[in-house]
Design brief:
The protein starts with a helix and ends in a 6-residue tail after the last helix. Helix content is 65%, strand content 0%.
């Protein structure tokens, strides 16, 4: 997942990998706290949620709020979907 998120942030090197990994883990914990119990790195919706979260918190300051709003909407959808919650 790290490589995918790095590419979505338009980064080619690994200079920020530690920070990106922390953002990924923070997103997964946020999803878990919201009630999403099924979090798989291979799931396209989870990957999209992490991508939106990362763009909202890393390097997209001018439009970061829009990414975070999209993340919140997707998080709510995941919380309400039976496949993602207990």
């Amino acid at each position: 997942m790290l490589e995918s998120i790095r590419l979505s942030l338009r980064l080619t090197g690994d200079t920020f990998d530690t920070e990106i990994a922390e953002i990924i883990e923070a997103c997964k914990l946020d999803l878990k706290l919201a009630g999403v119990s099924t979090i798989s790195d291979d799931d396209p919706l989870v990957l999209r949620a992490v991508t939106l979260y990362a763009k909202g918190h890393f390097g997209f300051a001018d439009i970061g709020d829009k990414y975070l709003q999209s993340y919140e909407s997707l998080k709510m959808s995941l919380c309400l979907a039976g496949d993602y919650s207990v």
